[in-house]
Amino acid sequence: MRVLFLEAPYNYKAELSHEALTYIISKGYKTMGVYAAVQFLGSLEKVKKQLNDVEIKMVTSSPERSQYKGQLLGCDVFTGNLKLHDDVDSYLYIGDGKFHPLALLHGQRDLVKEDIKEIICYDPLHGKINVLKIEEVMGTFKRYRATLIKFLSAKKIGVIITLKPGQEFMKMALRLEKKFTDKKFYFFVDDTVSLNQLENFNFIDMWVNTACPRIAIDDAEWFSRGVINLNDAYSVKEILEKKSVLNEV
Amino acid sequence: MELYDLELLKAIQEIKKVKAKVVCVQLPDGLKPMAEKIEAEISKRTGARVLLWLGSNYGACDIPSGLKRAGIDLLICWGHAKFHKNIEGW
C-alpha cells in the first residue's frame, strides 16, 4: 500500500520576536543548535540571519531518522540521535508545543550536569518563548533510573512490541533472551500500545518498551511496575556506571 | 490564509496518479478539525472513497497496520515527513 506524506508547512515566515531575541542576547550565547518541527523548517534561514545579525552562530544537523536537515523528531531522545558535531551553548527550537523540544532535554541524559544546555522553545504562532531546563525532567530521570536498577534483578519481563511497521522491532526485542539468560521474557504484541491492559498481566515484574521511546518516558505512570526502553535494556550497566546527570539524581 | 498549507493539490494529484479508489486520511490532532474539508475536497475532485483514521498520528513512524487488508489503496499522512527507521532500534 502506498503512503503519501504531506508536511502541512506553515504558511507564514516565522521570525524571532523581539522578546525572544532579547532573551537570547541576554544569555551571551555564541553558538546555538537550532531545530524545528517540519512545518517550520522554511523559517530557519530567516532565524539564522537574525542570529547572525547579533553575532550568534547557528548550527544544526540531520538527525538520524529525519528527512531534512534541522528537522527534530520526538524520538530524538537518545544521546547522539541528533548527529550534531558542533559544540553549542544552548538549543533553540522553532515550533509549538513541548513534545519535540523535550526530546532535546532527554537526549542529554547521559551528559554530566555542567554540560547540559537549556532549550529555548520559540512558538512562532504566538511569538513567545518558553525555556526548558534540566530540572524539568529530573523527576522523570529519578524514576527511570530506579527502573533501570530494578531491571538488573527482575526475573519476569514483559516486552511490548507494536505491529506498526515504523515502530516494530521484533528481532531486536527477541534477542533480549540471548543477552539475559537469567530472565524470563514474555513478548506482548499490540498495534497501539494498550496501556490500560498492563495491570491484567500481574505476574510481570516490569516492562521493556520497544515501540515509540516516548511511551517509556511520557506514559511511565501507566506502568506501575516500571518500564524502560529497549536500547537501554541492552546497555543498562553502562548507563548506570556512567558519570551523568541521570546518575546524579 | 490558513496557518498551515494542507497541500490538497498534491493529495489529489497522487490519488489520480495511482488511481486510488479507497483513500485513508490520517491527521495529527491539530489538523483533525480539517477532516471535514479534506474529505469533501478529495471526494469531489477524485471520486475516491475517503476513510478517516480515528486514531493517533504521532509521527511518520505511526502508520497503522492492516489497511491493505481493508482494501485501502493509499494512505495520506498529514503533518509529517518521511521517516528513516533504524532497524537496530531507536
N to C succession of SSEs of chain A? EHEHEEHEEHEHHEEHEHH
Number of helices of chain B: 2
Averaging pLDDT over every residue of chain A, what do you get?
96
Strand content of chain B: 15-25%
Largest sheet of chain B: 3 strands, parallel
- Across the major sheet of chain B, the strand order is 2-1-3
Strand order of the largest sheet of chain A: 3-2-4-5-6
How many extended strands of chain A? 10
- The tally of helices of chain A reads 9
What distance separates the N and C termini of chain A? Answer: 47 Å
Q: Would you state the CATH class of the largest domain in chain A? A: Alpha Beta
Uncertain segments of chain A of ≥5 residues (pLDDT<50)? none
Alpha-carbon distance between the termini of chain B? 38 Å
Largest sheet of chain A: 5 strands, mixed
Q: Superfamily at the CATH H level of the largest domain in chain A?
A: Diphthamide synthesis DPH1/DPH2 domain 2
- Overall 3D geometry of chain B? globular
**In terms of structural class, how would the helical and strand content of chain B be classed?**
alpha/beta
Write up this protein.
The complex is a heterodimer of chains A (249) and B (90). Chain A is an alpha/beta fold and 249 residues long. Chain A folds into two domains: 18-132, Diphthamide synthesis DPH1/DPH2 domain 2 (Rossmann fold), CATH 3.40.50.11850; 138-248, 3-Layer(aba) Sandwich (Rossmann fold), CATH 3.40.50. Chain A is 27% helix and 20% strand. Chain A is built from nine helices and ten strands. Chain B has a domain at 21-77. Chain B contains two helices and three strands, in the order αβαββ. Chain B is globular, with a radius of gyration of 13 Å. The model of chain B has no long low-confidence stretch (mean pLDDT 95). Chains A and B meet through strand 1 and helix 8 of A and helix 1 and strand 3 of B.
